[in-house]
Structure formats: structure tokens, C-alpha cells
Design a protein that fits this description.
5-stranded antiparallel β-sheet, 3 domains, 40% helix, 12 helices, alpha/beta, 14 strands
């Protein structure tokens, strides 16, 4: 076992990371620095400080990263309209690069020689964290307890916690909770009855959203203002990126928007059933495509759509800090220079309905050309005949060859 002097642990204060903290101290006989990030998970993060102090930690980092998370990670991702496997809005995936980056920065600040996380050996997060660590600090040592210890079940974790006097909020009699991850973009749920993909999720599981059946019977309109592909105002009020997402989550959840139940292909090879609530993200995706529909050149839009699955897969698999993702991001950002204007949406019982969009300065929509009425000679419809024949040439040649055969 390599000698470790100091390790920076991504620490939530929950059962897993509390046990990991004590296990690191006992197994590696090293000093542990804890890092707790507030990225909008909706839970108080300060209790993590008390837990860390109780376990003998002297260097404790608790930081509010909500604005950085949305501004530098969520918004750039939504400029690409990124969706993994046609459904997943990448809520967990996009949070990991920020946590990994800050862990490495703290490791440098504290002269730590290792970093550690609480991701299991079966999931995607171990890959995402560690690809980030190595991209930012090539020689950093990574400790992944779930790949080293023999605490392979929740019962063993609870037993370890009891033996070492580690306080835990979830007692044995309550049974295993869902495996959950939350941030400003989403809440995810895995485990328990969800491991049977044939079973419908319990209504009591959902935390952010009403069911469409219980959503209000009245529609609600909202206006989103865009500058360079990002939302800057909601219903006429200028808001920071994090505030935009907070408000959209509230509005979407109120109207039963953003629930997903899907089976995805993990990077490590297995299929996994998960449920997600992404109300604000669902609204952002619909609205962004609407504003792009009148401000983005056709071939640029189609090129973006071609590249989007590749971009989404890079984020899902943990390659945010890779040169190929950064190259794609440069292209995506360049495409957003003229994505300025507003979009009007109608929310109703799980539906996001686009009812208007406009850009006074950058619209490519020209009513004088598109009209079904008299266009006063602006567009010569006779030109279409030659256009069609030229494009049909290869089809006509192929048809003649088939006839000969």
C-alpha cells in the first residue's frame, strides 16, 4: 500500500462518505481534508462541517458553487442541446467535472498527495471523477474505497459506522433508501424497486414535481430572454444563471414537467434503470431549440444535431476535460453568437408548448419570402423546377439502371 500523507475527500456527510472518512484515517493512517460542494442539491451542507469535525478533520472546505455550476457547465452544455441516448439530460454527469476540478485545486492548496471519492465500482461516477482528476493533475493518486474495502453492502456500512461511533441518520429498520443524486439541474433515483424495469415508480419517490394528474388545471405562460444562447431573463426579470434554473425548476415542477423513467447504457458496460426529475432542464432544452429555429443557419443547425450525440456521450462518459470536448465546445459557442431574442412557452400538465419566438436583431425568418400570400416577386417559384431536377438527377439515373436490369 502506497504511503499517503494527506487526501482530499469529496464529502457529503452521508453514510457512505462518513464511513469512507474514518476508513481512510484507519487504513492509510493519513490526514483527511474534506470538501463539500453546494451545487444546489437542496439540502443543508453545513451539517457536513460538524460531522467532519467530530471525526477529527482539521481542514474543512464547504463552498457554494451554484453559480459556477450553472454558468460554466450547465449553460454551455445546453447550448449544444445535449441529450444522452435521446432522453437523459445529463444531470449527474455534468456535475462531476466541477467537483473533480475543485478537489484538485484543494489538493494543491493543502499539499495533499491523493484524492478520494465515494463512487462505487459499478457505476459511471468513478470514471467521471477519475478522468477529471488525471486530466487536471496527471500524477495524482486516487483512492476509491469501494474498489478496495470489503464493506460490500449497506448492512456492513451501518455495522462499521456503529462500531466506530459514526452517527448516521438512516437506521437499519428503515430499509435501503433510493440511491439518489441531486443538484440544481436534477434529482436522480436508482435502486430498490426501480431495479425491476417493469415496475412503475412509487409516486411518493418524486421530490421536485407534481404528477401531471395533480398539476394545475390552468396553463401558465413564461417568457425567456436569450443572449448568445443563454437565458438572461425570465418574465422580464434579469436573473443570474443559478437563479434562472432555480425558478424554472419551481415552475416546471409545479406543472408536472421533467419526469423521466429510462434504462440507459452505462459506460462500464451494464444497463441501468433510473428515474430523473429535470423540470428546469426540460424547459431550457425546448426553449433553446425554439430560439435557434429562427436565428441559426440551417446547415449549422444540422451540423450541431449531427455532433450532439457525440458531445453528449463525451459528457456522460466523463470526458469533459478532454481536448475533443473542448474543441466541440469552441464550435458550439461560436454558433451561439447570434442566438439572441425571446421565447414564449405555455406550461400545462407535463407539457412544454412553444407559442412564440422572436429576435429583432438576428432572426433569419423572413415573412416576405415564407408567406403563402403574394410575395411581390421576391421569390421566383419557377426557380424550384431546376433545383428539383438537379437534385433528382442521381435518383433518375439509378431508376434507369434498375429498369435496364
Amino acid at each position: 500500500m502506497r504511503k499517503i500523507n494527506k487526501v482530499v475527500l469529496a464529502f457529503s456527510g452521508g453514510l457512505d462518505t462518513s464511513v469512507i472518512l474514518k476508513w481512510l484515517q484507519d487504513t492509510y493512517q493519513c490526514e483527511v481534508v474534506t470538501f463539500t460542494a453546494d451545487i444546489g442539491q437542496g439540502e443543508e451542507v453545513e451539517p457536513a462541517r460538524a460531522k467532519a469535525k467530530q471525526l477529527g478533520v482539521e481542514e474543512i472546505y464547504i463552498e457554494d458553487l451554484r453559480e459556477e455550476f450553472v454558468r460554466d457547465y450547465v449553460f454551455p452544455m445546453f447550448r449544444a442541446n445535449a441529450v444522452y441516448e435521446g432522453e437523459y439530460l445529463l444531470g449527474t454527469s455534468i456535475a462531476r467535472p466541477l467537483i473533480a476540478k475543485r478537489q484538485i485545486e484543494i489538493a494543491r492548496e493543502t499539499n495533499a498527495d491523493a484524492v478520494s471519492h465515494g463512487a462505487t465500482g459499478k457505476g459511471n461516477d468513478q470514471v467521471r471523477f477519475e478522468l477529471g482528476y488525471y486530466a487536471l493533475q496527471p500524477n495524482i493518486h486516487v483512492i476509491a474505497p469501494w474498489r478496495e474495502w470489503d464493506l460490500t453492502s449497506r448492512e456492513k456500512l451501518l455495522s462499521y459506522a456503529e462500531q466506530h461511533g459514526i452517527p448516521v441518520e438512516m437506521k437499519k429498520k428503515t430499509g435501503s433508501p433510493y440511491s439518489m443524486d441531486a443538484n440544481l439541474l436534477h434529482v436522480s433515483y436508482e435502486g430498490r424497486m426501480l431495479e425491476d424495469p417493469a415496475r412503475e415508480p412509487e409516486e411518493s419517490m418524486w421530490r421536485w414535481s407534481l404528477s401531471p394528474e395533480k398539476a394545475p388545471d390552468e396553463v401558465e405562460y413564461l417568457d425567456l430572454e436569450y443572449e448568445h444562447g443563454d437565458v438572461v431573463a425570465l418574465n422580464g426579470e434579469k436573473l443570474t444563471p443559478a437563479r434562472v434554473l432555480e425558478e424554472l425548476n419551481k415552475l416546471g415542477g409545479k406543472h408536472g414537467i421533467g419526469r423521466q423513467d429510462l434504462v440507459e447504457n452505462r459506460y462500464v458496460g451494464m444497463k441501468s434503470r433510473g428515474c430523473y426529475e429535470t423540470p428546469g432542464g426540460a424547459i431550457l432544452l425546448r426553449a433553446h431549440r425554439a430560439i435557434e429555429s429562427i436565428t441559426l443557419d440551417r446547415e449549422v443547425a444540422h451540423l450541431k444535431d449531427d455532433l450532439m450525440p457525440r458531445y453528449a456521450k463525451l459528457i456522460y462518459n466523463g470526458y469533459w476535460w478532454s481536448p475533443e470536448r473542448e474543441l466541440l465546445q469552441t464550435m458550439i459557442n461560436a454558433s451561439q453568437v447570434n442566438i439572441n431574442g425571446w421565447v414564449r412557452l405555455k406550461l400545462y400538465k407535463g407539457n412544454i408548448i412553444v407559442v412564440g419566438r422572436d429576435s429583432r436583431t438576428n432572426t433569419l425568418y423572413t415573412p416576405d419570402i415564407s408567406t403563402f400570400e403574394d410575395d411581390e416577386g421576391i421569390y421566383n417559384q419557377q426557380d424550384a423546377a431546376g433545383f428539383i431536377k438537379l437534385n433528382a438527377l442521381r435518383l433518375r439515373i439509378a431508376a434507369k439502371n434498375k429498369k435496364k436490369k
